[in-house]
Specification:
four-stranded antiparallel β-sheet; 19% helix; 1 helix
Length: 149
Amino acid sequence: MSLSTDDGVGYIVAVFLTVAIAIIISLILGGYLTTTTESLSYKWKSVGVKVTVDHFNHIELTYIGGHHHQELDRLIVMGINSTGFPMRFYSSANSSHNTPATATPNLVLNDPPVGATINTDDGTLGKDHITVVAEFKDGTKVVVLDVLV
């Protein structure tokens, strides 16, 4: 047996070429992906809503404001009760729906003041799904509350 045999050279060249081709393909693909993706320009906006429930199934939502309060256009309040029907809401901050008798599903509060309350008397403790969406003046919509009460 001699030390000058070339038996393993073909395998070494094949491995080298495979690695080189993989590197070239990854560089081409990486360059393509970095030039075709758009930058993320989404800015998170936040305001808050607090929920309280009493033992009489009265649910009260209180708008507590937040960092983007000045940019808020409206709050949209929606709810589904335990039987699958829309819940009815009323608020002292909404002149057309400010008593239980004038309660409405999907209550909209335009330009709500901090401290505005939204109420419902037809709750079922632990079985009502309430969602509040904040819509800002630039058209951005953010779910600020999604809770089972």
